[in-house]
Amino acid sequence: AGERPARQLLARIPLALAEVGEALGAGQIDIAPLMEPISTKYRLAHPDAQVLAPVFHDFGGRARFSGQAVTLRVSENNPLVRSTLQTPGHGKVLVVDGGGSLNCALLGGNLGQFGVENGWEGVIVNGCVRDTAELRALNLGVRALAAHPRRSGKADEGEAHVAVSFAGVTIRPNDEVHVDEDGILVLPARN
After folding, report:
1. pTM assigned to the model
2. DSSP states of 71-101
């Protein structure tokens, strides 16, 4: 008896699709809101969302990504970035505050590959990246201030899981980070 309603519903699908097509053609359905980028939707739904200043460039293979923030503060040394990307990311976004330094790269192709292999959604670097062709080929979102050919130092220093402030916002561990072609938004962590 349960199969009959299911078959009736399946038989109705082509008719329903035709009705939707006719409505779209007649301008009765506005699909523009469905096509808006992620950041626009969050801006409209959350007017108090923090918006990072538009100083970041896209260097990754994914233009859109989102997830809970994992934060680091480093200064021209990237061992903490490496060790963090070598751990399971579980769909999170690594936020690296490199102090806005334009003296060296904190992320490159090898570390980006660790991010992909370990399930990170993306990396935001308040600093520079290198190996941009390699980063662009990865299924990983990457935003940074600039590209720089120089490698970072290898001193094992920095802080993890701390609030970081740059580009006009403060990002705390577990805040929600949403990135698309229009920018970077941050929402407070859900309780």
Report:
1. 0.78
2. EEE-SSB-HHHHHHHTS--TT-EEEEE-TT-
